[in-house]
Write a structure and sequence with these properties.
The complex is a heterotetramer, with 2 copies of chain A and 2 copies of chain C.
Chain A lengths: L2 H20 L7 H11 L3 H10 L4 H43 L6
Helix pairs in contact in A: 2-4, 3-4
Chain C lengths: L3 H21 L5 H22 L5 H21 L5 H26 L9 H28 L13 H21 L3 H19 L7 H23 L2 H24 L4 H6 L23 H9 L3 E6 L1 H6 L2 H13 L3 E6 L9 H8 L7 E3 H4 L8 E5 L8 H4 L18 E6 L19 E5 L2 H14 L1
Parallel strand pairs in C: 1-2, 1-4, 2-3, 4-5, 5-6
Helix pairs in contact in C: 1-2, 1-9, 4-5, 4-7, 4-8, 5-6, 5-7, 5-8, 6-7, 8-9, 11-17, 13-17
The chains are: A mainly alpha, C alpha/beta.
The structure holds NADP nicotinamide-adenine-dinucleotide phosphate (2 copies).
The site of one NADP nicotinamide-adenine-dinucleotide phosphate (NAP) has 32 residues of chain D, from α12 and β5.
Amino acid sequence: MSEPLVWLTFFVLAAFVGVEVISKVSSILHTPLMSGANAIHGVILVGAMLVAGTADSTGELIMALVAVVLASINMVGGFVVTDRMLIMFSHRRRAVEGAKRPELER
Amino acid sequence: MSEPLVWLTFFVLAAFVGVEVISKVSSILHTPLMSGANAIHGVILVGAMLVAGTADSTGELIMALVAVVLASINMVGGFVVTDRMLIMFSHRRRAVEGAKRPELER
Amino acid sequence: MIPVWAQLAYLLAAVCFIVALKGLSSPRTARRGNLIGAAGALIACVTVVASSEFDHLLAILAAVAVGAAAGTIGAYRVQMTQMPQMVALFNGVGGGAAAIVALLELSKLPDQPGGGGIVELIAAAFTILVGSVSLAGSIITFLKLQELMTTRPITFGGYPILYGLGLLAAVGFGVVIVLSPSILLGVGLAAVGAGLGVLLVLPVGGADVPIVISLLNAFTGLTVAASGYLLQNTLLLVAGTLVGAAGTLLTLLMANAMGRSVFSTLFGALRGASSLGSTTVSNRPVRSTTPADAAILLAYADRVIIVPGYGLAVAQAQHTLRQLVDVLLDRGTKVDYAIHPVAGRMPGHMNVLLAEAQVPYEQLKEMDEIDPDFKQADVVLVVGANDVVNPAAETTPGAPIYGMPILHANQARQVIFLKRSMRPGFAGIENELLYEPTTTLLFGDAKDTMSKLLTEVKAV
Amino acid sequence: MIPVWAQLAYLLAAVCFIVALKGLSSPRTARRGNLIGAAGALIACVTVVASSEFDHLLAILAAVAVGAAAGTIGAYRVQMTQMPQMVALFNGVGGGAAAIVALLELSKLPDQPGGGGIVELIAAAFTILVGSVSLAGSIITFLKLQELMTTRPITFGGYPILYGLGLLAAVGFGVVIVLSPSILLGVGLAAVGAGLGVLLVLPVGGADVPIVISLLNAFTGLTVAASGYLLQNTLLLVAGTLVGAAGTLLTLLMANAMGRSVFSTLFGALRGASSLGSTTVSNRPVRSTTPADAAILLAYADRVIIVPGYGLAVAQAQHTLRQLVDVLLDRGTKVDYAIHPVAGRMPGHMNVLLAEAQVPYEQLKEMDEIDPDFKQADVVLVVGANDVVNPAAETTPGAPIYGMPILHANQARQVIFLKRSMRPGFAGIENELLYEPTTTLLFGDAKDTMSKLLTEVKAV
Ligand SMILES: NC(=O)c1ccc[n+]([C@@H]2O[C@H](COP(=O)([O-])OP(=O)(O)OC[C@H]3O[C@@H](n4cnc5c(N)ncnc54)[C@H](OP(=O)(O)O)[C@@H]3O)[C@@H](O)[C@H]2O)c1
Ligand SMILES: NC(=O)c1ccc[n+]([C@@H]2O[C@H](COP(=O)([O-])OP(=O)(O)OC[C@H]3O[C@@H](n4cnc5c(N)ncnc54)[C@H](OP(=O)(O)O)[C@@H]3O)[C@@H](O)[C@H]2O)c1
């Protein structure tokens, strides 16, 4: 199988997975989901590191390091901010669970 | 990327697609869905034809042709029987649509 | 090397299959989904013929024509209620085809340049083994559902030992094949697989068979995926994996809808807890009635709910039932059918059955929708159903159906049961509802009783 | 060549990302999903470092540390209600990183053996262009949401022409790059992309910005996928595609939940139909009241429902509101919050806001659950909400919100509106409910009014 077709197949399958996997999201989770997906594309950090690791000139290296910094802001910041949002939600959930067995609260 | 890993990646992605894509099926459609999925694996016909087309001896050819017959029974019979089941369901659906605008029925 | 256009066409076919499965999982798009799947299959077949230089093209096309004709005829001849066993047969022959393909590839592998790699050999052995399991298992399910053999679970003393030996033999053959491949060993593996397939299905009770069919369907999907690897064909790999994954999930969902686990479906009979349950009949008194009396109850009711079940399918009484309902409707009675999701012996069984009798869709009410209405019903007519109205699902924690949602027929003013005897239903447990003061029984085959009822109601 | 173990690790990371997205789409598993995603990212980073021989490893690790620190600090400092603009910033820098990577690869491509293939060049151009669109667009969304620039849609006479020129320039640069790649052309393309990104976001009204952020997020996903192809790294391709596809669907879902199309979100302002709508104020009489009177109504009600909206977030009155509700609860009043799915300016805005004020979850009721209760409510307190209780959604076919499900506050015995003026809400249309005889208005900033109300209720 020719190389570009392998990649095309990956692309098509991954696109189906991406769409199907979130198709049942409840509207309350739209913002955290957006934020989580945003963190995932921070994996461009891998690409930035690869480019930085093979830089030939100082100019290239500096640009590549800028990309590394930006990508890690995206990745790390993204996951942390998503987690912060979701803590809010799970606080609420714990409250519900508590409410369902009130005997534990007293 | 090494060949077997390409195939492993296809496998993993396709498995996710397969699971996600039917995860919302309503219980009434279990039987037609099973039947339709059954028809899809009839695509082994492609494999059977490939083997038959490159058979070296008569013995091989005969076995391969048996496989071709079996596979086409699977594929064609599968799609036809699924369609027959689903016609039943869509009859009913047309009935509903009719019921929703009864003025058309009279 | 496969030409690029052919690879693109295969990818398109794979996309068609994905879209097909998606379509099939929603009532609105199911039929279109199936047709898209068929289109994908057509694309795949045309592509393989056009992109390869086949030696025996005519013979191959003739074989395709034979298979297509046989499949079409089978698919058109089969009655609605025999669909599951037809699907089982189609699935079995697919598994058989995959096993043959792998067998033939096995004989070629060592010759090919770079062939005979360990992964290829494992894929071949897997396909041969699981393909034969699927073929043999499907044949047994067919025989069971067609009642060409007993539908009761079959077990015997040495079963676990035999099963274990079979598994060991399979592993042994597999290892030897990987070490020194030969077609003879392949045939041996196929034989072991067939034996295992038979053993797998024997202990399954008749009514659990649909779950096993779905499982074997997933198996065949996986063999097709493995033979895709063997033949270096992406489409087979992707399509097979799709079906394998979707089929596995579907098996779980189906077992879930019947309130049992896949494991207990397969091996429950071995642990003594027969999945058909006991058939003890207690001698407590029940009230039974005649068609004439029941007809009067029905004729003067304002609100009637019909609960159809497996017995309706057995008796093929759906047409007579519809006529009865039509007469009642003409009299101004409000009549609906209450469709429990697992009434009958396959999902959607009642819908298919009543659609065959051309009952208008509006009269078929899903459980959640109709259940609150039982309180207001004057008469509930239970036609060949049992478990789906059994209050034990709510009151008896140990019962096999405990936890299953039921139709609350017991809340109605009057319940009339049409059945042949006091024997229990599928779950094999007594139904307290039969002994309630509001319940009357109308013994006899549902079709006979229904015709008499029809005559009497017309005469009122 | 990437070693096999590293390829397996990448595949594992990709699976983590899939599982993460799945987890994030259900409340029960969302947090775990996010952590699994982070684990996948960690696996990916460790793998790339361990499997490659980097020249400037220390510098690279230092850069990662700097970025991680900056990201973490930003993520911890941001206030809950500023999350959307933070996400936008993170997304933008990701797009910028992808564009830089592609730019650097572009300068290398022609040297590589077999490099400079047309598909590679197209992927590079795509990444540079769309990455810069994403970066520039995200910066503008940030400025808008932080109110560092006007949140109103900005358009100007030559806009469509400029936009068309920008697109043409992009295509032109792209073609030239494919024909004779050079880093200078790449920089030019990036500049054009930045311009297009600015133009894309300018005409979007402040409240539609979340939709655009989601769109830019999907864009960045696609650039990451393209740079995966460029670097021949499957993980980047798969992860980028996942986000691209999921992000696209999410954009549609978000637009849907607000009852508008993505197209009208982006370009609605150009067609004159300003997405903020008109702000005409009619002069019909309304009934307004004082905090003291409103407090009496509240204090003697048995059933109160609070409808929070965007104004509550603006006024940051959530804490005072909770105190008021606590006082009412102590008096034995039954109080609930009715949460409309698109109240506020981002999905889940009210949930996050009220969670911050530590309102117990049981008091937050989703629309479907609480809506039937309005009929029995003595007082509905509408705090900074407007569109979500506007009956025009059901009565005025032409209205921008027509068809959106609303909370039927109009069915309650008394409605008290807290708002500053007679200005309409986000949709820019008048709210008939303000003129109903059962409605009284309590003018003023929600936080001030709420404190007064609190004092008065305590005094009753
Ligand atoms: N739908 C599915 O997908 C599926 C698949 C597998 C298993 N199941 C299980 O099957 C059961 C379905 O419940 P159900 O209420 O439909 O059926 P059921 O509980 O099996 O009861 C069937 C009833 O029909 C009567 N009957 C049989 N033949 C008859 C005839 N010719 N005339 C009149 N009556 C006849 C039987 O009593 P007599 O023998 O006394 O006449 C029996 O009481 C559930 O336990 C379900 O879990 C369902
Ligand atoms: N949730 C989302 O995801 C999202 C995203 C984008 C758009 N939207 C849209 O936003 C709207 C949300 O509806 P909504 O009812 O929450 O808000 P709204 O219709 O925009 O109304 C907000 C109300 O709050 C008042 N207000 C503003 N600041 C205030 C303050 N400091 N004190 C007191 N009142 C104040 C405003 O009136 P005054 O100016 O007179 O005070 C206005 O009536 C919907 O149209 C929705 O489609 C939602």
